[in-house]
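Message: I would value a second opinion on how I read folds in token form. Give me a protein, with the fold worked out from its sequence. Write it directly below this note and I will take it from there.
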Amino acid sequence: MKLNRYIDHTNLKPDATQENIATLCQEAKQYEFMSVCVQPTWVSYATEQLKDSIVKVCTVIGFPHGANDPRVKSFETQQAIENGADEVDMVINIGAVKSGNWALVKEDIQGVVDVAKEHHVVSKVILETCLLTDEEKIKVCQICKEVGADFVKTSTGFSTGGANVHDIALMRESVGQDLGVKASGGVRSKEDALAMIEAGANRLGASSGVAICQGLVSQEEY
């Protein structure tokens, strides 16, 4: 198993500097991670840093709370793609889910997925599983299948909890083999990574990619 190719090497810290992003990209090239995941403001820079490598550029949409107007998320997706993003990880409208406003939830996800598909860009949908019931997680996964998203993803890493084996297994069962499942938030060691993959994840979001590949345990929060 090439564990490195499961990893979106991540730095979404609000105080990340250009030097931090340069280091992230250099590590990603060295270890040949699947992608780097950075805030939208760093997409152009990361694209330039990685232009001669196999590493993709991933960014986040409606991050971290997901409470933007759907039109804003669609525009943000378009801008990210124009700046060089190969993949986009959007946060759902969590409040709409908790309110049972499924029409808005679907509109919100569909808007981002449609823009991504138009440009052959991979779309991942962040559920923020720590805030949802299992029934809500299943319903969101069903909507993601309906609108043609490429992945469902557990967490932003900026809420009350991250990925766990239960949620990964539930999401995999909900989407079947049609969609990818990304575990993110709290994946800090090789053991964590392998447990998530065993439960059904085929992508890992982690700031600890180097430690994971070296068999160490990171103290990073994401």
User: Anything to note?
Assistant: Strands lie at 7-11, 35-38, 56-61, 87-91, 122-126, 151-153, 180-184, 203-206. The CA atoms of residues 81 and 110 lie 16 Å apart.
